[in-house]
Amino acid sequence: MADKPHPVVFIHGLWLHKSSWEPWEATFEQSGYRVLAPGWPGDQETVQLARANPDAVADKGIDDVVGHFAAIIDDLPASPVLIGHSFGGMIAEKLLGQDRAVAAIAIDAAQIKGVLPVPLSSLRATLPVFKNPANRHRAVMLTADQFRYSFGNTLTDEESAELYDKWVVPAPGKPLFEAAAANFSLHSPAKVDTRNPTRGPLLLIMGGQDHTVPEAITKATLKQYRYSPAATELLEFGDRGHSLTIDAGWHEVAQACLSWLRHKGF
Q1: Using alpha carbons only, what angle is made at residue 71 by residues 34 and 227, rounded to the nearest 5 degrees?
Q2: Residues 115, 220: contact at Cβ < 8 Å?
Q3: Is the pLDDT of residue 117 over 80?
Q4: Domain coordinates of the chain in residue numbers?
Q5: What is the pLDDT of residues 122-144, one digit of tens each?
Q6: Which CATH number applies to 8-263: 3.90.79.10, 1.10.760.10, 3.40.50.1470, 3.40.50.1820?
Q7: 101/110 Cα distance (integer angstroms)
Q8: Do 95 and 193 touch, CB atoms closer than 8 A?
Q9: pLDDT-based confidence at residue 1 (cuts at 50, 70, 90)
Q10: What Rg do the C-alpha atoms of the chain give, in angstroms?
């Protein structure tokens, strides 16, 4: 029975289907939260449908996703807590900066405007998209080997392959191109209001072995919030990669999120 006043909205990132949050949803429901894990605009209801219909998400950019989730939030009975992974973490940061949430947790969040480090591992992880400029307007599917490098580098071959088969779907290339050009664009959709003094608390979580969003990016993101008096905190799982929300250790990360929310009074 949900007894918490603020619902929790989970926001997935590129290449993972919304159903990848199902274990988290069950855990948070057991802790008294009403939970939602909507897809991005164009997302299909199942992994199989998503793989069969990649064009449904093609050419969807950051603003499309933010507007989609803002509309969902507007229909909620109370302001939510947002929990996002990868590009979902960036979306959560943007919505928190717009005062559309009471708190947010951004897990291995994608690079926002103002963040300068682009480690080599991050470039390699995103190469499947950037190798063809036309991918800006397309949906791109990772191969199992590409997923192994980008997400599953701390896992066994078997676990990485299992996660790939279970949850990986085509993703729009546009958000990556927008993020890559953010520091050269005055009105980039990757810009987040990091100076908002009245926003709710933000927890940044990073995996110390993450190839896609290395710790240098998350630490640089934290610095972007230094001019706001609002609470911004950092938590590191030093031995984890980009798969930390879906691999065998997901429960440890989820419990850390629940503990932080309890500490903040949510």
Answers
A1: 85
A2: yes
A3: no
A4: 8-263
A5: 878 888 888 999 999 999 999 99
A6: 3.40.50.1820
A7: 19
A8: no
A9: low
A10: 17
